[in-house]
Structures are given as structure tokens and as C-alpha cells.
Amino acid sequence: MPRRLRDRLPARRSALKVMHWAMVPMFVWFLLVTPDDVLPFGPAAFQAHSALALVFVTLCLCWTADYLRRGLASRPGPKLPGWGRTVHQWLHKVLIWGLFGVALTGFLLGLTSATLLKAGGVLPIAPPLGLRRANEIIGQIHIFEFYLLAAIAVGHAAFHIWRHLKLRDNALRIMAPRALHRFL
Description:
Elements: H1 3-8, H2 12-32, H3 35-38, H4 43-70, H5 82-112, E1 118-119, E2 123-124, H6 132-167, H7 171-175
Helix pairs in contact: 2-4, 4-5, 5-6
């Protein structure tokens, strides 16, 4: 990347922090609201839900690409015991690959669909192959994978809260926006 452009972009950790906190409310939204929940509100509500999913998937793929290019951005911290270092690394890797997996199964849903699905109503997901049984199986995998990832995300949050409170290593201040530091 040219030096001029690199100097104008935010630091890697800052960009990941913004992506992290942008993804949290979307992740909660998709946990609580399914496409079937928004359909009664009309096509515009469904398109808004779909556009939000497109933004979420784009952030997932950006995070995975960053990980593949540069590895984990977070370090375990000096106060973590040996088992904690292992848990720290595995939690982050599982979350990154899990988010990629959700994006991949979403693509496979579009690929096996009988009709052309468009993310956000504008971006074709994949050419529909009309594989009804495969679409049902992938749909179940997609749902299971997302809720399993939610459980892992809760474990991730609990781990960092434990670190912050028990080890007093400021684990939450590292990822929290500066405006929230006074509450931590």
C-alpha cells in the first residue's frame, strides 16, 4: 500500500475496534430478528434487513481477510496464565473463522436457492441452482452455526470481563471506545 494512503487510514487496531463495535449490534439484531420476523412489515423492511446483512457479511469478510494477511491483532497480555493464553487465542480464531463460515453458508444458501437472491436487494448472492434439499440442509447449518457462534461470543465477552475484573489487566479498555473508559 502506498505510504500516502497508509498515512491517511486509521491504525489497524483502531479500524478493528470500529469494526468490532459496529458488528456487535448487528450480531444481536440477527440473533433476535429473523427474515420471517420482518416479512410481515413488507418488502421495504425485508430489504433493510437484507442490506444490514450485506454490511455485516462485508465486515466479516474484511476481518477474515485482515486475519489472513496479518494474523491476530490482539495479544494475550502478560497477566494471563498459560491456559488463558490458549483460550484467548482460540476464542479469537474461532470467532473470526466462525464469522467467515456464516458468510460462506449464506453464499451457499443463495447458490442452492431456486430463485436469485439479492443481498440488500441489489447484489446477487450466487446463481441459483435450485437444489431444494441442499438448500434446506445448508439453511439448518447456517442457523445452527450462527447460534453456536453467539454462544462463543458470549464466552468471549465473559472471558474478557473475567480478565478485566479478576486479573485487573484492563482487557476491556483495550477494545472499548475511549468515552467508556471512565465506566470501566
